[in-house]
Amino acid sequence: MLPRHFSYQDKILLLQHGCTDLLHLAQRRGALLHKLLSGTSIFEQDIQKPHGRLHHADWLKLLQNCQQQLNSPELPFLLGTTLLHNRYISVSQCLLYAADLKQALRQLLYFRHQLFPGIYVQLYRRQQGIVLEFNTGLTHGQQHSTAMTVLLSLLLSLIKLQLGSSDGISAQLKHQPPALALPYQLHWGCAVSFNQPCDSLLIEHHLWHQAFSAANPAKFAAARRTCRQLNRILPRQRGLLEHICQLQRRALPALLSLEQAAQQLGVSASMLKRQLNLHKTNFAQLLDSVRRDAARQLLQQGCYSNRQLACKLGYSDEHNFRRAFKRWTGLIPSSFKELQNSH
Amino acid sequence: MAVSFGSLKPVQLFDTLDILGEGTTLLVACLWLGLIISSRPAGPVTEWLYYGSLLLMYSYFLDLLDEFIRYPDTLRLMSWLESLPAPVGMLLLTYGLVGWHREQRSIDRQLRGRELFLRDHHLIDPLTQLYGADYLHAVLGREIALHRSQHKPLSLLLLDIDDFAGFNRRCGIAAGDNYLGQLSELLSSQLRHSDVICRYSGDRFVAVLPDTSDVQAQIMRQHLQQHLSMLCKDDNQPQLTLVCSSVSQSSAAAALQAALNAVTTARRQHAPLTVQNA
Question: Is the ipTM of this complex over 0.90?
Fold first, then answer.
C-alpha cells in the first residue's frame, strides 16, 4: 500500500526537529522572536512542548522570515550542523553512530519523513560514483535553495566528521551562484557547481564502505529503536508531487492520465487538479519533469542509444525525444553526454 | 550724492512706521549678505548670490535714506537709482539660488551613494556586529590604492580559530556563537578606531590596519595576544592563531590570499600565536 500523502497544511513536522534550533540561531543573531513567528501559526508558548507540531507552510514561512530579517549567509549551514548534533533528534543520532556511509544514508532515507519530509532522494550509479539526486515533494518556491543547503550541510558535516574530509565528493546545485562562495568552501569543503539541472551529491564508490570513526553498533541500534517508536506518532508520509512522480516513474514508458493518477491516489480528478494548483504546477508539467529527469539520469549512466531512450521514456520515435531533450537542456543528447563526461 | 542733492526733511515729517519697515528690510538684506559670505565656498554660484544681495541692499538703503532726505522734483536719477537695482538684484539672487539648488542636488546624490556603501546594514554580520567579507574586499581594495599612491605602509591582522567546528560539536553551537561574540568585542575594544575589523568567514577575523608599518603591527599583535590569552583561561576553549602581514600586493584578493596562506603555514608549524610576514 502506498503511504499517505500530505500537503502544506498537514502538521507533519515536530517543532523540536529543526524549528527550535532555527529560532535559537536566529535569536542569537539579533532577530526578534515575535517577528520570526509572524505569519505562521506557531505560538511562542508551544515552542518548548516536546511534541508540538507545525505544518510545512509554516516551516517555509519561518525560513523566509529568517532570511528577510537577518543577513546571515551562514545560517542554513549552521542549521544543518546543529540538526546533526541535536541529541533529541533520533535520526541524527542514528546517522552519527552508523557503521559506514551506506548504513547512515539508508537510515536517513528510511526515516527522512521525520526530519525532511519535503525532500526525496533518487540514487543512481555513474562511472565516478553514486549520485544522490534531491527533489522536492512539495513546491518550496524561494526557500528551495535554503532547504537544500540545510540538508546538504547536514550530510557533508556528517561525512567530514566521520571520514575526516569531504574529498571525493562533489555537489551540484540548481540555484544561481551567490556573490560570495566563501561559506560553501568553509562549511562543505568540497567542489560545488551552481546552475546545474538538479541538486545532487556525487559520492565516490570507495567512500560508501569506509568505516565511520564514531561507529557504535549498540548506540546505533538504540537510536534506530527510538526512530521506530517515533514512527508511531510521525507515520511515513510523502509529499504529493513526490507521489505523482513516483507513480509516473513506475508506469514508464506508458504515460499516466490525470484520472488514472487521481484514482491511484484515491482522490477525484478535480481535487487533484486543485491541489496541484496549490503547488503552482500542473499535471502535464510534472510528467514532463519526470521524463526529463529520467532522460538525464539514463544518459549519465551511459550506454543507451537515442532510440532506446525514446522507447524507455514513451516517445513515439527518436526525433521526438531529441526535440524534447533540446527543449529541456538546450543541447542535443550526444553533446550533453560529452559535456557530462568531460566534467 | 543723495546728501549733496537733497535737503534734510524736518523732523515732524518723518514717518516712523515707514522707517521701521524699510530699516528692517535693509537689516535682513545685510544679514543675508553676511550669511552668504560666511557659509558659501567661493565660486560662481556664490558670486551671483553675493552681487544679487548687494544690489538689493543698496536699493533698500536708498529707500530708507529718502525717508530722511527730500530730493528736488526735477531729479529723476535718484528714483531710478532707488527702484532699478532691487528687481535686478532679485533676478541675480534667484539665478544664484537655482545654481545652489542644482549644486545641492548633485551633492545629495553623491552623499547618498556613499552612505549606501558605508552604512548598508546588509554588509554587517548580525551575530558579531562586524562587517562581512563583501565589505572587507571593497575596503581593502580602496585602502591598497590609497596607500600605494601616498607611499604609506598598510598591514593586515588575521585571527583564526583552530578547529572551531570541533568546539561547536563539543560545546554546542550556542557556546560557539557566544565565543565569537566575545572575540569580536575584544577585537573592537582593543584595536584603534581607524582599523576596520571584519568577520571574514565563520571562524576568521581580519582587521585592516591603515598607515601601520610592520613593526607597529607586530606590537599590536603582541598586545592583542596578551588580551586573548586572558580570554582563553578555560582549557576547553579552542586555540587561536594570530598573524599579521604587511600588504605589498596590488589587489585585495592577492593580499588576502597571502595572509591566509600565512595562517596555514603558522598552523602547520604547530605553534599557535606565531608571527609570519607575507
Answer: no
Q: How close, in Å, is residue A28 to chain B by CA atoms?
A: 7
Do residue B124 and residue A71 have CB atoms under 8 angstroms apart? Answer: yes
- Residue ranges and CATH numbers for the domains of chain B are 2-116 (no CATH), 121-268 (3.30.70.270)
- How many other CB atoms are there within 10 angstroms of residue A163's CB atom? 18
Q: B115 pLDDT band (50/70/90 cuts)?
A: low
pLDDT above 70: percentage of residues in chain A: 99
> Which residue in the set A25, A70, A71 is minimally distant from B173, CB to CB?
A25
CATH for the stretch A239-342: 1.10.10.60
> Which chain B residues are Cβ-neighbours of A160 within 8 angstroms?
165
Report whether pLDDT(B277) > 60.
no
**Nearest beta carbon to residue B126 from set A70, A81, A160:** A70
Contact B168 A81 (CB under 8 A): yes
Enumerate long-range contacts of A204-209, CB under 8 Å, 24 or more apart. A204/A128, A204/A129, A204/A168, A204/A169, A205/A129, A205/A130, A206/A168, A207/A101, A207/A129, A207/A159, A207/A163, A207/A168, A207/A169, A208/A100, A208/A101, A208/A102, A208/A130, A209/A100, A209/A101, A209/A102
**pLDDT averaged over every residue in chain B:** 82
Judge whether residue A191 has pLDDT over 50: yes
Contact B202 A186 (CB under 8 A): yes
| B206 vs A contacts (CB less than 8 Å) | none
Using CB atoms within 10 Å of the CB of residue B229, give its burial: 0 to 12 exposed, 13 to 18 middle, 19+ buried.
exposed
> Number of C-alpha atoms within 13 angstroms, CB side, residue B144?
18
A-chain residues near B132 (CB < 8 A) = 71
Over residues A87-139, the pLDDT tens digits come to 888 899 999 999 999 999 999 999 988 888 889 998 888 888 899 999 888 88
Rounded Cα–Cα distance for residues A104 and A170 (Å): 18
Mean pLDDT of B208-235: 83
As a whole number of angstroms, the distance between CA A18 and CA A30 comes to 19
Residues of chain A with CATH 1.10.10.60: 239-342
- What pLDDT does B275 receive? 43
Contact between chains at B127 and A187 (C-beta distance less than 8 A): no
Does B27 score more than 60 pLDDT? yes
